[in-house]
Specification:
The complex is a heterodimer of chains A (237) and B (397). Chain A is α/β, with parallel strands linked by helices. Chain A has six helices and eleven strands. Chain A has one domain: 3-Layer(aba) Sandwich (Rossmann fold), CATH 3.40.50.300. In chain A, β4 and β5 form a beta hairpin. Chain B is an alpha+beta fold and 397 residues long. The chains are: A alpha/beta (237), B alpha+beta (397).
């Protein structure tokens, strides 16, 4: 696996508190997801999934370890990249369990907001948004308000938003939880297609039994440690 | 870049407009309070301007005739007329009393004046001036009388022959102008029972009803039935003479108090309506604080309702200043809507006030600036709360 693309973490640890009250939420976690690959991150409640996701999403600083995204060092032995906000904007896409679309922006602007925040002009940003909405087969709702969309449509818009700045990494937190089997598999199909089309590494945190068989690789996390195993890699059709 | 504040306002415009409407009514009250104060000051100035005088001569050691009572003999004006720099001088009386018309009764300031002399209302909006020596009146239009109405002042009936405007006392009572002699009678004349009783009392007083002094009792009774007093002498200064110099001469040689227009304005504005001005000032301060608290509460509540969206915005890399700007713009937008509603409301309801309400453009501009400053200050609480939101809360809490 080429270390210059996707996301790679080595020996990542996170400790909350100090002394006797200290809790090690992550212990020497290693993980590597290549560009164009979709992997699953599975674990019971309290296993450290959310902490790992926050570290990968550059909103929580790890205590130790190294992390690179697209070949760029984010954390390394206590050092961290100075502008994590810009990193999140340009290099990481987020998909949440609930779509969390901005309710006062229409579908196009929800997606175009990210390129605009990155400094692209309105026309360019909207063109990018429409391109992604078309790829996700939701362009016909481009002018709709989020409240006018179904759950599945909202999730597709949130996927488009995550891809808007063409990030090398997308972190998806339970993206299929509120969806039925058919829609959940449809979302996974889209993620798989987008990963390949845009050369994006996608990490899907999930409990969803419906989609677990679709991963080719799965990271199990338990008590703050990860174990990698091969998935079934069932065809998404 | 999209205006996040603008989109949010458009998205929930109903809530925003209703909130702005409520705030606007409060701002309207604030502007009206300022207008009430301006109206009082303007009424005072107009009263002085319309009296046509340059100098007010009043009883020594008083600040009459508007701020306190003053009494002068009605022949004082003759001596003043002979002084250097005096073009015209005329007696005037002022008395606040109840004036009746049919079954209605209003409180008015009755002014006694001599036609063609200072003290006469200097313009009419309808009718004619007082031309007869008795029982004609000119009234301020705010009294509610119409031309031809018969009004009753004390024992006599008067016909309203003309209407003027903006002639009200410092208390806001409309003025009713009647001939001086009538006003002196109305002010000082006793009722018949009191006159009979007074005559009997005088007749029983051996010092006033001396045997062997014929005519003394009649003379005393006659003097008690007539009033020879007025409240002020209004002086019109001749061209080329300074009112200050004329007033100084009157003070020096006549042993009376004399005020120039500037001094009278100072008495009216700084002394007579000073307490009312402080009262209104306190109201303005309280209203400003209440408005600030309301804006702060509304903006804070609106921001707290968007905490998840703010967390997502921060997570996807929105700058703090963009989020702060969004909240600030919404606060300013709310203030602007409130100000427009307030200005329109104040303009619409100002004529309905019983006293003159003057809404000055300068006050409106100062009000707008104050509203904007209040909104900026009020939004800081919400901005602080928004900036404390951890972007991590968007990821599974």
């Amino acid at each position: 696996m080429a270390p210059g693309s996707g996301i790679h973490i080595e020996g990542l640890s996170k400790r909350y508190g100090e002394g006797a009250a200290a809790v090690d939420a992550l212990k020497d976690v290693n993980m590597s997801v290549a560009a164009g690959e979709v992997v699953g991150l599975i674990g019971p409640s309290g296993s450290g999934k959310t902490t790992l996701l926050k570290c990968l999403g550059a909103v929580t600083e790890p205590t130790r370890g190294r992390m690179t995204i697209g070949g760029e060092v984010i954390y390394d032995m206590g050092w961290k990249m100075p502008d994590l906000r810009a990193l999140r904007r340009d290099r990481i896409g987020f998909i949440f369990q609930a779509p969390y679309l901005i309710p006062f922006l229409d579908v196009t602007d929800n997606v175009a907001l990210l390129p605009m925040l990155a400094g692209r002009n309105n026309g360019e940003a909207r063109a990018r948004a429409l391109e992604l909405l078309t790829a996700l087969d939701i362009a016909h709702r481009a002018q709709a308000q989020p409240s006018e969309l179904s759950g599945g449509e909202q999730q597709r818009v949130s996927i488009a938003r995550a891809l808007a700045n063409r990030p090398p990494v997308i972190l998806a937190d339970e993206p299929t939880a509120p969806l039925d089997s058919e829609r959940a598999l449809a979302v996974m199909r889209i993620l798989d297609q987008m990963a390949r089309q845009y050369r994006t590494a996608i990490i899907v945190v999930t409990h969803d039994e419906k989609i677990i068989p679709t991963f080719k690789r799965i990271y199990h996390i338990r008590d703050g440690r990860t174990v990698e195993e091969a998935g079934e890699g069932r065809a998404l059709g | 870049m999209i205006s996040l504040a603008g989109r949010d306002i458009l998205h929930s415009w109903g809530k925003f407009v209703l909130t702005g409407l409520g705030l606007g009514l409060l701002i309207g009250v604030t502007l009206s309070m300022a207008g009430v104060y301006r109206g009082m000051v303007d009424d005072a100035k107009v009263l002085l301007n319309n009296s046509g005088a340059d100098v007010w001569v009043v009883q020594k050691d008083t600040q009459g005739p508007y701020a306190e009572s003053s009494s002068l003999r009605d022949d004082v004006y003759r001596g003043i007329l002979g002084m250097r720099g005096v073009a015209r001088a005329a007696n005037v009386t002022y008395l606040t009393m109840q004036v009746r018309s049919g079954n209605t009764e209003i409180r008015a300031m009755v002014v006694g004046f001599e036609p063609g002399q200072p003290g006469e209302p200097n313009y009419l909006i309808s009718g004619r001036r007082v031309t007869r020596g008795h029982y004609e009146a000119v009234a301020d239009v705010s009294a509610g009388f119409a031309q031809g109405d018969r009004i009753r002042i004390r024992r006599h009936e008067y016909i309203v022959v003309g209407l003027t405007r903006r002639m009200v006392s410092s208390g806001g009572d409309p003025m009713v102008f009647i001939p001086l002699k009538d006003a002196q009678e109305a002010q000082f004349l006793k009722d018949n029972d009191a006159i009979i009783s007074e005559r009997a009392r005088t007749a029983l007083n051996p010092a006033l009803n001396r045997p062997g002094v014929p005519g003394l009792l009649d003379a005393i009774n006659a003097s008690q039935a007539n009033s020879r007093n007025v409240n002020t002498v209004l002086v019109d200064v001749a061209d080329g003479h300074a009112p200050e110099a004329v007033a100084a001469d009157i003070r020096r040689w006549k042993h009376l108090q004399a005020f120039t227009r500037a001094q009278m304005e100072e008495i009216l504005i700084a002394k007579l309506i000073a307490t009312a001005a402080k009262q209104i000032g306190m109201f303005l301060v309280i209203l400003a604080i209440v408005s600030a608290a309301i804006v702060a509460f509304i903006i804070y509540t609106m921001t707290m309702g968007k905490i998840r969206e703010i967390a997502v915005l921060k997570l996807i890399g929105t700058r703090n200043r963009t989020i702060a700007g969004m909240i600030l713009q919404q606060a300013l937008g709310l203030g602007l809507i409130g100000f427009v509603v307030g200005k329109i409301s104040a303009t619409l309801w100002a004529p309905a006030f019983p006293k003159y309400v003057l809404l000055e453009t300068g006050d409106a501009v100062r009000g707008l600036v104050a509203v904007m400053v209040v909104c900026v200050l009020a939004s800081t609480l919400a901005i602080r709360a928004a900036l404390r939101v951890d972007p991590a809360t968007a990821i599974g809490g």
